[in-house]
Task: inverse folding
């Protein structure tokens, strides 16, 4: 429901375009007058194949987008940060959710119903064009991910994922707070295989490891792993 309690939008550097991010102006245009919604770490916004009736915007916090196999195996598709849109596909076409969304941290979000979204897009052509650009960016990201799954070895995919997470999630000290199980879920690999690769890269001084976190020591070395496998 909309009201006059406008959230304070967090300003931060724009992450890579695989995330469905809006510029501050368009984010405020889309979600102006929306009531802030607060969620705890571990709360689900929606589950795969749920009815899609809302679009969410991330004001602060981190939201994981993932899918599950019939056997319950999880594959993490993306991590969404400030000014990301969540659930835009289902909200636009009215179909079921294509993935699940869970809050990894305490989050502050804003949301619109599908009816409100369509009204705003009809009233603002520049906002509608931006949404089209974001959908295209999302489609390109999904296509690239599928190509990586098919063409790159797991070592190259892990190196590529660490480089991306370093850009998006590293703290001021360069540490990426992520578990080895979570990394395995990104790759569709086993925790044991990821642990083996990470320990080897630590010995080669490509990364540093501490409990629940990884720091990139040699980005060039990780990029070389990706490039060698892609040749």
Result:
């Amino acid at each position: 429901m909309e009201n006059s309690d406008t959230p304070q939008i967090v300003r931060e550097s724009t992450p890579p375009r695989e995330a469905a991010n809006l510029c501050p102006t368009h984010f405020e245009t889309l979600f102006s007058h929306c009531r802030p919604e607060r969620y705890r770490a571990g709360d689900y916004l929606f589950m795969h194949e749920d009815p899609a009736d809302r679009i969410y915007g991330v004001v602060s916090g981190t939201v994981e987008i993932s899918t599950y196999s019939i056997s319950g195996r999880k594959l993490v598709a993306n991590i969404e940060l400030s000014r990301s849109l969540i659930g835009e596909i289902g909200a636009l076409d009215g179909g079921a959710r294509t993935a699940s969304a869970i809050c990894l941290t305490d989050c502050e979000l804003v949301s619109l119903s599908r009816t409100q979204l369509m009204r705003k897009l009809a009233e603002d052509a520049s906002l509608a064009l931006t949404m089209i650009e974001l959908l295209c960016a999302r489609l390109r990201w999904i296509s690239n991910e599928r190509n990586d799954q098919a063409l790159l070895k797991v070592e190259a995919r892990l190196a590529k994922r660490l480089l991306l997470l370093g850009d998006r999630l590293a703290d001021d000290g360069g540490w990426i707070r992520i578990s080895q199980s979570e990394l395995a879920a990104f790759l569709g690999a086993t925790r044991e295989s990821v642990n083996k690769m990470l320990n080897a890269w630590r010995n080669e001084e490509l990364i540093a490891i501490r409990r629940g976190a990884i720091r990139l020591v040699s980005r060039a070395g990780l990029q070389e792993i990706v490039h060698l496998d892609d040749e």
In short: The radius of gyration is 18 Å. Residues 1-18 have pLDDT under 50 and may be disordered. The helical segments are 24-31, 88-93, 114-123, 125-151, 154-169, 180-187, 191-203, 219-230.
